[in-house]
Structures are given as structure tokens and as C-alpha cells.
Specification:
Cyclin A, domain 1; 3 domains
Length: 333
């Protein structure tokens, strides 16, 4: 590498540090990429490279926005888990048994855990769980809801450990299940596959489908054990997320923005409400119902394949729901 290459690399590092400080100062609202390159007085190509480097380092997240009639990115700093959590993070969790009576099997397990210190969660397992929390929360891009989800997931994980639920279970997988449970409790439309996809465990020594099944099994077991209570899933909360994903599509986002009007959204919500009143939503994937209602509301102007991909469901799910929801749409028209 010659001296010119070294000077360019050093210049980019300096610009990266300066840009990151500006993004930090912009607060939770962030700053547009176009505004940033104007402040720094450099070309847009260099800022794009810097933004991608910061994003790859998990320091910022980029959100595609429409500013002054042109598409650009808003750069928002990603906070650390220590900044997000309202409570202090202990180095190790101490076992405790609540005073209230519990089922005999659970009480025996908790007593065994308390009497055997080696069965307590180790610092290594605790650190791995926090690393998992940090990685997943930084990757989901929940914006202002990140703090709420992180705190709720942290509380669920601690409760699971305090009753001995973590014994014989992988702490990373248990944290992923706690994050999914927190999203369900707070009514945030996050798919289980999205959480599993951002987990480093799934990309390591374990198959993705097996890992996803393991997280789902932990989630069900925690719910059945009374560690948390989750409300029934609501299809309507998934609708806005699907619309946002379509509008931020890199290739056809502007076309979808013009097509997915407020009237289309209102019609899709009416279809969902009608399906609920008839009792046909029980046992069905809420994301799939939301995707199908949107497909029906936009009168097929967006293909089932594109809507299914935005909803993280299969085309078969949309196709199977279509024949039920189309009749309701015809009645509402």
C-alpha cells in the first residue's frame, strides 16, 4: 500500500469519527445522509461509504426516507444495552424462591438449584445471554421501542433464571425466546424468524430451522410455566409493518407509496375486523391474515409473492386465506 492509499484511509477514518459524533449529537431523531455530507463538506459517495462502515460495525442504523422529493437515508445511532436498560446489569444472578406456593415439581427444581451452587447460571452464560440481547436488539431496528423491549426481555430472562428454568437450557436461546416474548407482550409485530436470523447461534454450529424450533419451544415452555403472559396476537398490528416494508423497498418504494394509500389501509383493517367478528382468525398466522387483507384491499395490484415476502410468510399462506377474505371484501364494497 503506497502513501496515497494510506492518506486516503486515514482521511476516511477521521471523517468516520467526525460523522459518528455528529450522528450522536443528532439524538434519537437522527440525521439524514444528505444533510451529513453537506455539513462535512464532502461528496455523497464518501458519506455513503462511511455510513455503510458504521452500519456494519453496528454503531448506526440506516432508515430509507423521502426528503425534499428525493430518497435518502436517515442515520440513527444504535445505543448499547447498558444505555437501553433502566436497571443495573448484575454480573451473576442469585437464586431466590418466592414465598408463594408453587407446583411441587417446580418447587423441587428450585430447591435443588438453590442447594447446589454449581447449578446456578455462570458468569459465562450470563455474558453470552447479554451478548445475544445486544446483538438481536441492535439488529431488529425497533427505534424508540428498543428500550421497552430490551427491559421487558431482560426482566423475563431474569425471572426464568430465578425459578431454575435455565437449568439444562442454552442461555443464548433462552434470551432469544425472552425477546420474542417481550415483543408479544408489548404488541410489537416482530416475527420469530427475524429474531432467530439475527442470532449468532443460528449461524454457528446449529441449523437455522432447528434453532428456530428450539426458540419456539423455550417460548412455549416459559408461557406454560407462567413466567410471562402474552396477549392473543392481533393481525392489525402487523399491517403497518408490512406497509412500511413495501414503502421502503429499494427498487419500487415510491410506486408502493403511491399505491398504498390511507384508504387501502382502512379497507384492509375493515377486512381484518370483519374476519374477527366471524371468528375465522383463531389459530391463523396474524401476519398472514394482515398480508392477505392488504392484498385484497389493493385489489391485486401488488402480487401475492411481494406481499408475502414483506410479511415474512409464504405465498401459500396468502393464497389459502384469500378465498375467505375476498368474500368479506365483496360484502364491504
Amino acid at each position: 500500500m503506497d502513501s496515497n492509499d494510506l492518506s486516503v484511509a486515514a482521511k476516511l477514518r477521521d471523517l468516520e469519527a467526525e460523522a459518528y459524533q455528529i450522528i450522536i449529537q443528532s439524538g434519537d431523531r437522527g440525521i439524514s445522509q444528505a444533510s451529513l455530507w453537506r455539513i462535512l463538506g464532502v461528496n455523497s459517495r464518501d458519506i455513503s461509504r462511511i455510513a455503510r462502515r458504521l452500519e456494519n460495525k453496528k454503531k448506526i442504523r440506516r432508515v430509507r426516507i423521502l426528503e425534499d422529493g428525493r430518497w435518502t437515508y436517515k442515520l440513527i445511532r444504535i445505543k448499547t444495552i447498558q444505555e437501553l436498560l433502566d436497571i443495573d446489569i448484575p454480573k451473576q444472578i442469585d437464586a431466590s424462591i418466592p414465598n408463594e406456593r408453587r407446583p411441587e415439581g417446580e418447587l423441587v427444581k428450585a430447591l435443588q438449584w438453590q442447594k447446589n451452587p454449581e447449578l446456578q447460571i455462570s458468569k459465562l452464560s450470563w455474558d453470552r445471554a447479554l451478548d445475544e440481547l445486544y446483538k438481536i436488539m441492535n439488529s431488529l431496528g425497533l427505534g424508540i421501542r428498543t428500550r421497552d423491549v430490551a427491559n421487558e426481555a431482560h426482566a423475563i430472562f431474569r425471572k426464568a433464571v430465578s425459578i431454575g428454568f435455565s437449568i439444562g437450557r442454552r442461555s443464548e436461546v433462552l434470551m432469544a425466546a425472552s425477546i420474542y416474548a417481550a415483543c408479544r407482550r408489548l404488541g410489537i409485530p416482530v416475527h420469530l424468524s427475524d429474531i432467530c436470523r439475527h442470532s449468532y447461534v443460528s449461524s454457528g454450529t446449529i441449523n437455522f430451522q432447528r434453532y428456530r424450533g428450539l426458540v419456539a419451544a423455550y417460548y412455549r415452555s416459559m408461557r406454560e410455566s407462567g413466567i410471562f403472559e402474552a396477549p392473543l396476537p392481533d393481525s392489525s398490528i402487523y399491517l403497518d409493518k408490512i406497509i412500511d416494508r413495501l414503502k421502503t423497498d429499494v427498487q419500487r418504494g415510491q410506486f408502493y407509496s403511491e399505491l398504498l394509500t390511507e384508504d387501502v389501509r382502512s379497507t384492509a383493517l375493515r377486512v381484518i375486523q370483519k374476519a374477527k367478528s366471524l371468528g375465522i382468525t383463531a389459530g391463523k398466522n396474524p401476519a398472514g391474515l394482515a398480508a392477505t387483507s392488504l392484498y385484497v384491499a389493493c385489489d391485486g395490484r401488488i402480487s401475492q409473492k411481494i406481499i408475502a415476502r414483506a410479511a415474512a410468510v409464504t405465498e401459500v399462506t396468502v393464497r389459502n386465506n384469500y378465498r375467505y377474505l375476498k368474500e368479506m371484501f365483496d360484502e364491504l364494497a
